[in-house]
Amino acid sequence: MDAEKMDENEWRYHGEGNKSLVVSHRKCCIVLRFLKFSPNRSKTPEEIFHHLQNIVHFGKHIMKQFFGEKYVHYGEVVHLSLDFVRQLCLKIQSERPESRCDKDMDALSGYAMCLPNLTRLHFPEHRPILCVEIKPKCGFLPFSSHVSQEIKHKVCRYCMHQHLKVAKGKWKRLSKYCPLDLFSGNKQRMHFALRSLLQEAQNNLKIFKNGELIYGCKDNEDSLSDLNELAHHLKPFFFPSNGLVSGPHCTRTILKELIHVITVTLLSSTDDCKAGDVKTVPTSQGRSYCEASAFTKELIRNGKNKMETSGLPRDCLLYKTLQVQMLDLLDIEGIYPLHNRVEQYLEEFPEERSALEIDGPYNESFYEKLLDLSAEDDGTVEYALRKVFFKNLEKSHSPIFIINLSF
């Protein structure tokens, strides 16, 4: 990629979140990820470079250790022409959702991250390519003794937030999706969870065909959620064996096949991954189902009070994701006092920030420190930092499952 010869017309708006904005190249399978800031931001180009480099190093040296080389794409930091970045910023502004425009794309530093575009496979596209993107969210209920509200031991964070977001108008309808169903390992519950995502995708499910979004939310208001239209797109991949070419039965058959393929993929074996060796609290210490789950409620209505949990294969991606999530042993109520301890220490001794490696380097040595899962608080700032980093690991680096299919 020649930074001096880049043309903004070769790039298009791909999507954005709260902290970054992504554009994709029209021909090459790459994306650029830019940071976003409030209009009154005061970060220097050097600070932005350091921030992006830390993201790369965290993926390369920390997340890769948990998930394996094949499942983490950490990219690289690139320096771009400021003229190109400013022209690109102007070009895509009209495509940005209004709800995301409270922050601006960084057009002043010239730095961005270059990553592979996982919505397209990296070989000549001589056949249709389907990409399914899932944000699974947290798959367990907190078991920490620091939790003060009993409801948090019974209802997962995602289901509680559903009610909050609908009440605030972010979403029009409640989703029946519950992460604990997806992470249960029980195929009936997993199928229900994936079907619920298809029925109410929100921002937790997107489906791309040859790099184009064909199903899921573009923003809070614009949703491509016609299941019949989705089934039409999926016919080259899942043409029903009974020969039906249209109608509701055809749609149900195709979506059922899609759900089956996703389930098999999520339960399939992975390799080159250390997460299975991480010592953590077993899932049996916490409740394995969420009382707000629509699946759970349906069982109770049918007079079945016992929830079947098959468990996850230890070498599958879901299991390893859950292991990393469960490194957060304290919940936010246990973490918050430790966060305050770190903040107070840095106010008194700001020169110690570098020695404590708060801003990196995130390398193999840092990874080894993270693996110290000692539960007893010795009152030190080092103990507090380890636990705060674990919470940031679960919150800021939540995995997104990308499933590519080509037939």
Summarize the structure.
Helix content is 36%, strand content 14%. It is α+β, with helices and mostly antiparallel strands and 407 residues long.
- Number-wise, the strands total 11
What share of residues is helical? Answer: 25-40%
User: Strand-residue fraction?
Assistant: 5-15%
How would you state the average pLDDT, rounded?
84
SS-based structural class? alpha+beta
Helix count, DSSP H or I runs of 4 or more residues:
12
User: What profile does the largest beta sheet have?
Assistant: 6 strands, antiparallel
Distance between the termini: 30 Å
> Which quaternary structure do these chains form?
single chain
Radius of gyration: 22 Å
Could you explain how this protein is built, in words?
- The protein has helices at residues 45-67, 82-92, 157-167, 179-182, 187-199, 227-234, 248-267, 294-301, 317-325, 331-348, 364-370, 381-396; strands at residues 11-16, 20-25, 30-37, 76-79, 104-105, 111-116, 129-134, 205-209, 212-217, 223-224, 401-406.
- The chain has 407 residues and is an alpha+beta fold.
- The strands form two sheets. Strands 1, 2, 3, 4, 5 and 6 form a six-stranded antiparallel β-sheet that branches. Strands 10-9-8-7-11 form a five-stranded antiparallel β-sheet, with helices on one face.
Write the layout of secondary structure elements.
Elements: E1 11-16, E2 20-25, E3 30-37, H1 45-67, E4 76-79, H2 82-92, E5 104-105, E6 111-116, E7 129-134, H3 157-167, H4 179-182, H5 187-199, E8 205-209, E9 212-217, E10 223-224, H6 227-234, H7 248-267, H8 294-301, H9 317-325, H10 331-348, H11 364-370, H12 381-396, E11 401-406
Antiparallel strand pairs: 1-2, 2-3, 3-5, 3-6, 4-6, 7-8, 7-11, 8-9, 9-10
Helix pairs in contact: 5-7, 6-7, 10-12
